[in-house]
Design a protein that fits this description.
The protein has 96 residues and is mainly alpha-helical. It is built from four helices and two strands, in the order H-H-E-E-H-H. Strands 1-2 form a two-stranded antiparallel sheet. It is elongated.
Length: 96
């Protein structure tokens, strides 16, 4: 799960000290998805306080054929988790 930037800014300093933040996320997820909370087998939370990219790069990934070295990540394309997937997918296409 990934929370919104607005909500995350409000809770970023509290998530380590309290279960309330993770419980809020799980409750919202259950409400939206209908998932049975008794089927949750693991829960952990992590906040990325200083890693939010507001500006895109002109490309989604970088592949150096000479060195057979590729770099990808959400920071290439934007601030959301799907940007990481898009970047990795772009790199995979370049490697082929």
């Amino acid at each position: 799960m990934q929370a919104t930037l607005k909500w995350s800014k409000k809770t970023i300093n509290n998530y380590r000290d309290s279960n309330s933040v993770i419980n809020q996320l799980i409750s919202r997820f259950i409400k939206l998805s209908g998932f049975d909370k008794n089927k949750i087998v693991h829960k952990k939370i992590h906040g990325w306080k200083y890693s939010y990219n507001f500006k895109k790069t002109p490309f989604l990934s970088n592949w150096n054929k000479r060195y057979q070295l590729g770099v990808c990540g959400d920071w290439f394309g934007g601030p959301k988790v799907e940007n990481a997937w898009l970047s990795a997918n772009d790199l995979a296409k370049k490697i082929r």
